[in-house]
Amino acid sequence: MEPTSISLISYIFILQYYNLPKVFFFVIFFFCQFLSFSQSKRTNIWAFGYNAGLDFNQTTPKPFRSAATEINTTASIADESGNLLFYTDGSKVWNANHEVMKNGTGLDAHDGNFSQQTLIVPKPGSKTQYYIFTISDSFWAHNLLYHEVDFANDPSGEVITKNKKLGDQSLLVKIAGVFHADKNKVWILVQGANRNEIYTYIIDSKGINPQPVISKTLYRSGSLDYGQAKFSPDGKFAAIANGLENQSVWLFDFDNETGKLTNFKLIRSEGNPESLEFSPNSKVLYVASRSGSCKPGLSNLYQYDLSKSYSASSSIPGRYIAQEADNFGMLQLASNGKIYIGGRTENCVENAFLHLIDNPDTYGPLCSFIKNALSLGGQHTWQGLPNFISSYFNKETYLPDYDLQIPNIITLNNDGLNDRFYIKGLESIDSKKEFTLYTRDGKIVYKNPDFQNNWDNKDLKEGIYFYNLFISAGEKRYKGWIEIMK
């Protein structure tokens, strides 16, 4: 029997059909509104910089020593409970023990100036397979490559495929990722070099579609337009920093159903805009722009209000937030809703701290920029931070996808069919699974803080009961009804 997903209209129908008391309508309505939308814990472990690491599984991020040694972007991924799975600098892959993964060397990735060269994407529909995307190191002709990691035969993971090329387009060194509108498939974005094209590739349970969606821009990119590319957490915007040659940020509306970018808008700032990030509510864009390098050098941080309407091809004004003597490095949103900033110190050496935007949803100075806000515990960074699928930071749309089959009829007649309540697929989830059963007037008749399909359901009378299943990994909640028949 298929899983039961009950809408508010369905609840109303059930209440009317079984003549349930109105007070229970409000109980059910409350549960319906209490769907636990939560930011994913897949981003809770960061490994980057010079052996730097941060654990976001507690209120204050905890530093640890990683094996990463990368001045630019890295990528890391945790499971749904926030436990580290693996991380990469684009050339090597390390497992959760901070050891080089089996076959985890020899990946091709660029390591030049301000490179956003790698991204990890879980394969949709798989519990063991992951893609690593990199931009190749061949100068003037960077290509998009993918590599595959699998945990099916080795609990520490192994790289089973390396350096498979996607397309022949020459690219700039930047990659961004976001969920498809169905919250299952994934889009990745790359930018053409010395042309006016942006490419988005779709990844689904069948693999990677090698034919990209091509979107045209108003301007031609340079061959050295370095900088970050990002999607907004809600998947409605895409922004691309083009430092050095274009010296501008391009903002687009993004259709996460079709993969098309439209409604081009231009963002200008002093110097070379290299780094950018969206606020958690996707209504504010932050851009860091640099003039010069080291001594003398100067970086400025701006924010842009995206809640207002701007016409296509318009230039969006910004608000100055902060200035740094040398450079602001890459910006990255975290699962705690704050934006962290890497970067060298004013003496042009590695930094043992990250800067912070404490309230990034707030437009204006109350966003609260804090210099050197977070210690790296004795480790350092130059400019890079990890790269993630932006949708993981959208608390309003991200829900983990568990393949559960929840029955809604139990027949206690000992015929061997539907004699017990058994949720198929529950055994594959490692985290706590709280199960509660209610009568139609809201009385709890069964509750198990860690349900393991061990309810025998023999002591209950015939009738309709309502269940609430809460899975701590990803904070996913399922609600529905069960009819017991004897």
Topology readout:
Elements: H1 8-17, H2 22-33, E1 45-48, E2 50-55, E3 62-69, E4 75-78, E5 84-88, E6 93-95, E7 118-122, E8 129-135, E9 142-150, E10 158-179, E11 186-192, E12 197-204, E13 207-208, E14 213-216, E15 229-231, E16 237-242, E17 248-254, E18 261-267, E19 272-278, E20 284-292, E21 297-305, E22 319-324, E23 331-333, E24 339-341, E25 353-357, E26 369-375, E27 409-411, E28 433-438, E29 444-448, E30 463-471, E31 476-485
Parallel strand pairs: 27-31
Antiparallel strand pairs: 1-2, 2-3, 4-5, 5-6, 7-8, 8-9, 9-10, 10-11, 11-12, 12-13, 12-14, 15-16, 16-17, 17-18, 19-20, 20-21, 21-22, 23-24, 24-25, 25-26, 28-29, 28-30, 30-31
- What gross morphology would you assign? elongated
Q: Using only CA atoms, what is the Rg?
A: 25 Å
**CATH 4th-level superfamily of the largest domain:** YVTN repeat-like/Quinoprotein amine dehydrogenase
- Under the CATH scheme, the architecture of the largest domain is 7 Propeller
Describe this structure in words.
There is one protein chain. By secondary structure, the chain is mainly beta. The protein has 2 domains: 117 residues, Immunoglobulin-like; 353 residues, 7 Propeller (Methylamine Dehydrogenase, Chain H), CATH 2.130.10.10. 5% of the residues lie in helices and 41% in strands. The protein contains 2 helices and 31 strands. The strands form 7 sheets. Strands 7, 8, 9, 10, 11, 12, 13 and 14 form an 8-stranded antiparallel sheet that branches. A 5-stranded mixed sheet has the order 27-31-30-28-29, with no helix packed on it. α1 runs antiparallel to α2. The N terminus is likely disordered.
